Amino acid sequence: MHQSKQGKKEAVQSMFDAIAGKYDFLNHFLSAGIDHSWRKKVAKIVAHEKPASVLDVATGTADLAIAVSRRTKAKITGIDISAGMLQVGNRKLEQKTLQHQISLIQADSERIPFETNSFDVSMVAFGVRNFEDLHEGLSEMHRVTRQGGLIVVLEFSKPRKFPVKQLYLFYFRNILPTLGRLISKDRGAYTYLPDSVGQFPDGRHFLNELERSGFTQVTERRLTFGIASIYTGRKNN
Fold first, then answer.
1. Residue 154: in which H helix or E strand, if any?
2. Residues 6+ away with beta carbon under 8 Å from 110
3. Which residues does 100 contact at the CB level (< 8 Å), separation at least 6?
4. In a 3-state reduction of DSSP, which class is residue 32?
5. The whole model's pTM is what?
C-alpha cells in the first residue's frame, strides 16, 4: 500500500470494516483451520504467565482474546481501529457469555488509551503488519506492559525451505487473493494480505524491532514449516 501515513490507516480501517462479516470464515477457510492451533499455542504461553490483565491489540473479531479466556481468568481488553470488526467480536462475546471477562474498545494501536504499566501481558495476532508505524505501535505496547511483563506476537512469516517456500508463495500470490475476492467481494483486501506479509520484517528483523522498542529476552518460534511465527519479549526496563 503506497499511501501517506494517514492514508494507510484509513485504508486499513475501511478495508476491515468492509470484510468484517466474512473475516472469521475466510481466516479459517484460507488457513485450512491451522490458525486455531496457532492461537492455542499463544494462549498457552499467555496462561503460563498467570496474568491478571491482558491487552489484545488489533483484536479484530476477538478470536485470540477468546482463545486466551479459555485458559486464564485474566481480565482481557481488546482494542481495534475497525468498528465493523469489533461489532462482530461483541456478538461472539455475547453468544459465549464472555462480556464479563473480555471488553472491546475502538482505539488506535499507536495511541493506546491506557496508562503506563497497565497490563501483565500484551499480545497481538496478525495485526502488527497493519501498524502504520511498526516502531510506534510496539513502543506503545511496551509502555502499557508492566515491568517484567510479556509481549506475545503471532504473525505470518515467510517459509525458507524448498518446496514449502515455493508452494506457499504460489498459494499466497495466486490462490488466496482469488478465493478471498470471490467470498468477501472485496477486490483489495486479499491482495493487501500477501503484499503486507511480503513487506513485513519477519524473523531476526522483527526481533530487532522488538529490541528497538525496549523489549529484552526476545524469542521466535516458527510454526507449520515457517508459515507463521510466535515472537515473545520481556519488559525489563
1. strand 145-156
2. 131, 132, 133, 136, 137, 140
3. none
4. coil
5. 0.92
